[in-house]
What does this fold into?
Amino acid sequence: MGDHRRVPARTDFTFWWPVTVRWGDMDALGHVNNTLYLQYVESARVGFLERVGWGVEAFAATRQGPAVVSQTFHYRRQVVYPATLEVGLRCGEIRHRSFDLECAIFRTGTDILVGNGNTVLAWTDLSAGRAVEIPAAVRSLLAAPGTA
Amino acid sequence: MGDHRRVPARTDFTFWWPVTVRWGDMDALGHVNNTLYLQYVESARVGFLERVGWGVEAFAATRQGPAVVSQTFHYRRQVVYPATLEVGLRCGEIRHRSFDLECAIFRTGTDILVGNGNTVLAWTDLSAGRAVEIPAAVRSLLAAPGTA
Amino acid sequence: MGDHRRVPARTDFTFWWPVTVRWGDMDALGHVNNTLYLQYVESARVGFLERVGWGVEAFAATRQGPAVVSQTFHYRRQVVYPATLEVGLRCGEIRHRSFDLECAIFRTGTDILVGNGNTVLAWTDLSAGRAVEIPAAVRSLLAAPGTA
Amino acid sequence: MGDHRRVPARTDFTFWWPVTVRWGDMDALGHVNNTLYLQYVESARVGFLERVGWGVEAFAATRQGPAVVSQTFHYRRQVVYPATLEVGLRCGEIRHRSFDLECAIFRTGTDILVGNGNTVLAWTDLSAGRAVEIPAAVRSLLAAPGTA
It folds into this structure.
């Protein structure tokens, strides 16, 4: 992908996470609120990190893990309840202390793209409050979560 | 500003919106969840649009108004309850059917930057489901909400 | 059931709604926030109302439908992500202009009760802002949604 | 108060907490979602507990504190953004291991009651996962937070 302004395809993604839209996810405009798209991506990210061996227990135990440094999201379509969605993720560029997690939300089982974006995550030592080197064991899994 | 990766200063912003962090805004990591930063920006944006004559009533009455097309946000600092914040906004580039709304969140009355970003808004006809020309009356106010 | 302080059993309920807990449903105490239990019940209630012919379209079209007058909820167990739950509902007492919707949340496929309660709903004319008679067609379905 | 079905008055409450309604607190029906009323009460409760010496640090440090066992809430009026509210609290009955926290939400500076209810809190040892005796120092403050 690289350029997340490009419209992604399903085949760009290697990890998938299902989301069921809740009625309460809608706002006063009668569609899913734009902050909720990012909660859906968060849900998928937590699942992805579990897959690469860095689930909530690892995070709590080591007080170390990926923290969101920045994110960009392109809203492509409104979503109205009821709906089921799938969030696709794939690891983009991996740097020393940070990596890109590219995402796209599709309607379940379709090519209908609801939105897509990128999240930059820094591997952070929560106690020290600063970014540290991504563990080698994680680094290899980030690139290939599907085989983990 | 232009380049939102640059660290903004308070003097870059012309419209301010206060936010009181709620205990419930925090997530299981014990800090304000990253989707909430965008709810704070949304709150400010609704206030800003009211100021330029496009409040919730105008939106409902005309079924026309700005819809979020994309957003980018840079998380600079964690926020832990209790805290009070200020969201600064300023209109960036204004195009035919869309404009940029640059934002930054500071701790109240300080230069401590919590995060900043940019939201691209398309002037949308909700019934037609497509972007339309920004009304001229709005266009001039976007550039100078402080004088509205 | 009648007395909602009594611990309910799965067999008390005639309508079921699945809920997948999201990581973001947890609060700073590291468990699902107590307001979210009520969002899960809301999700089930919306599904139940759809079943009895009063889905979101009917509500919007008629500007009439059930509004929450009061609710009581007993928190029985903490829930920590990841978890899947099932909300059971059954209509309790039906009055002229209001009815009780009894609810219980179980861990999926088990008798582990997470919480239970009751919601009083008044059939409301949103335009007039007051309770009106429950439509006869709805009244019979409320008692037996499983057969709808 | 005692009977929380009775309509309370401002003079019933000894502790007050301000809440600014956010646009995003509204749901697809265009009013503040009913789960949010309980988040407002939660916000007030956290402030109240801080006042009686059991703030978030005490909770985290001792792994002990009040947990919500049940709550009842009566929705009296819709709330539409923009609005500012005040949550009034007062401690009701205090038992060995639990107490009642009665609440009411008013529009700021008015007698307009938006809703009211009661929360039962059990003093809980989070590690042991069971209710324990309310500390004596807390017990006396619960009855008179205004003088703390």
